[in-house]
Amino acid sequence: MRLACILPILLAVPAHAQQCAPRADVVAALAANYAETPRLMGISGVQMMEVYVSDSGTWTITVTSQEGVTCLLASGGSFRASPQGVAG
Fold this sequence. Notes:
- By secondary structure, the protein is of the alpha+beta class.
- The protein has helices at residues 3-6, 23-34; strands at 20-22, 37-44, 47-53, 59-64, 69-76.
- A five-stranded antiparallel beta sheet has the order 1-5-4-3-2.
């Protein structure tokens, strides 16, 4: 699993939150290990959701708390941007 390469940089935290670390560490690891950069973001209350994407099509979705802790939610491959005007 791709996330396994990032896990060594993550903080030792309880099992339910093992894929969280300071945002700067996560951003650096995604860039260094997968050449992923932020492409989309949104704010919900005090949390920020971001989608990181590489030119090869790998992607990662993160959520960052108000305290600056970023958690990895999902990752995969074959990312494609939807054309404008696509319904549903």
